[in-house]
Design a protein that fits this description.
By secondary structure, the protein is an alpha+beta fold. It has 16 helices and 10 strands. It comes from Cucumis melo.
């Protein structure tokens, strides 16, 4: 069920059913408008952040233009950002797939659109996430990260179980005292310790300061970079004035980032040296990319995804917990291993469905490398070199032409032959789930480990507990397994 397909040149495998077809489609002008200069971007910005929120923002414009492809502005924008907010939104699976064709698009400095945080946050260098595949350093760094993930597989599950055990011990103790426990309070330090050890070989136990506050440092570091692009939805207009009007500076986190740098330089010495000797990176490149991969991609992504995944389980009223429990107990009699976990197709489907509805990174961007024709289901559109494409995944992966009852949460959606075929349209990783990450594309190097880690996270819970209860990010009750 979980095999990946390799396409020529290492590019993500894009299903023929959604890639540009050889048949001719009617050529259509791209609908939508950027509005009057400056005023149009301000109006769209206020809708996006204040009056509508991202989901309604894209839905209303899709309905207004009667098209899943249209022109609009996305923030951040005027008055204090030197960015161009103009994008072409692509909101169906077929048009969205063009974002992964590296022959026609590039990904230089478009991780979060035309906006880019100061490179001060990453050692005054552009880390891999901001590099295009045509840049020589991209291949070196992508291969370095891929090698780290490959080597870490030997300790991945054992370290994950160890940190999950510590996390749930803390949750149980807090419930005993307060009758409730904030899940994230224990999740974030566990994730930080886990990824420091598995990705960098750096044991936080050797640095009490980092063990105590390293995960908080990463949260602040992430927030200062991304808050100008994030819809928070509270305290307007203060949010608009103070968080969305200018790029936030590095200096408040500078000393803490240096502490993280020093920690990974010392405790992750073996990994850093391998980056230098085997992959041709400088020591600084190896360390800053290691911090970014650990902090931004891994820690940041799972800090968002695991609470959503757990909420899906807690909020279910259909008996999902009992079904998961039965699958885990029947498949893991010898413990949680790569082999036993791969047999848990219900949990895999649950993870995939959560990624479909709630991808950790909701928006993906790409800039046209050259003029080309973009196709949706019923039309073709001329895209000019340099135009920025924006795909909002929570709508893309609710495409009614691909997914039955697309708004419904269905934990069985990706089971069976028909369910496996739908993996072609699961795009959370900057490519289809059936794609193969390589130095020639921008697909997440750890895509398969991400899914496996989420499956182990769920399986561990139901090896330890017969049931759990909670809501709103808190655990309120549990029943330990006999």
């Amino acid at each position: 069920m979980h095999l990946t397909m390799t396409s020529s040149g290492g590019m993500p495998s894009i299903p023929s059913s959604i890639s540009p077809p050889p048949v001719s489609l009617p050529l259509r002008n791209i609908p939508g408008s950027y509005g009057f200069p400056l005023l149009g971007s301000i109006s769209d910005r206020l809708d996006y952040y204040w009056f509508q929120g991202p989901d309604k923002f894209f839905r209303t414009r899709m309905e207004k233009n009667r098209s899943t492809v249209f022109r609009t502005n996305v923030p951040p924008s005027f008055p204090f950002f030197p960015t161009d907010p103009r994008v072409i939104a692509v909101l169906d699976c077929k048009s969205f797939a063009h974002l992964f064709d590296m022959e026609i698009v590039e990904k230089k400095n478009v991780l979060v659109g035309d906006f880019m945080p100061s490179i001060s946050f990453t050692g005054n260098m552009r880390v891999c996430a901001y590099l295009d595949t045509s840049e020589s350093q991209h291949s070196k760094i992508k291969n370095f990260i891929t090698d780290i993930l490959r080597r870490s597989s030997r300790i991945w599950i054992s370290e994950l179980e160890s940190n999950l055990s510590t996390m749930w011990d803390g949750i149980e103790s807090e419930i005993a005292k307060n009758k409730t426990s904030g899940f994230r309070n224990f999740l974030q330090p566990a994730l930080f310790n886990f990824f420091s050890k598995t990705l960098a070989g750096a044991d936080t136990a050797k640095s009490p300061e980092v063990a105590k506050s390293g995960y908080i440092d990463v949260i602040i570091w992430l927030g200062l970079q991304l808050v100008p692009t994030i819809h928070i939805g509270v305290l307007q207009p203060l949010e608009e004035i103070f968080l969305h009007s200018f790029r936030l500076p590095f200096f408040p986190i500078a000393s803490r980032y240096q502490r993280l740098y020093d920690f990974f330089q010392k405790e992750g010495k073996e990994v850093v040296e391998r980056g230098v000797t085997e992959f041709g990176l400088t020591k600084e490149e190896a360390i800053h990319n290691l911090i970014f991969t650990m902090g931004f991609n891994a820690y940041g992504g799972f800090s968002l995804f695991f609470p959503v995944l757990l909420d899906r389980i807690l909020n279910d009223k259909t008996g999902l917990q009992q079904r998961i429990l039965e699958e885990v107990r029947s498949k893991s009699s010898s413990g949680l291993t790569f082999e036993s976990v791969k047999e848990m197709d219900l949990i895999y489907s649950l993870v995939y469905e959560t990624l479909r509805l709630d991808p950790p990174v909701p928006s993906q961007y790409a800039r046209a490398r050259k003029d080309f024709k973009l196709t949706s289901y019923d039309s073709a559109y001329n895209i000019k070199k340099g135009e920025l494409l924006c795909g909002y995944q929570p709508l893309v992966m609710r495409d009614p032409k691909v997914f039955d009852e697309p708004e419904a949460f269905n934990p069985d959606r990706f089971r069976g032959e028909k369910g496996v075929a739908l993996l072609d349209y699961l795009f959370w990783s900057n490519g289809p789930q059936t794609g193969t990450p390589s130095e020639k594309n921008k697909q997440c190097a750890g895509k398969d480990l991400v899914v496996l880690t989420a499956v182990v996270f769920v399986a561990y819970i139901f090896k330890r507990y017969d049931s759990i209860a909670g809501e709103g990010g808190s655990i309120t009750a549990f029943q330990r397994a006999n």
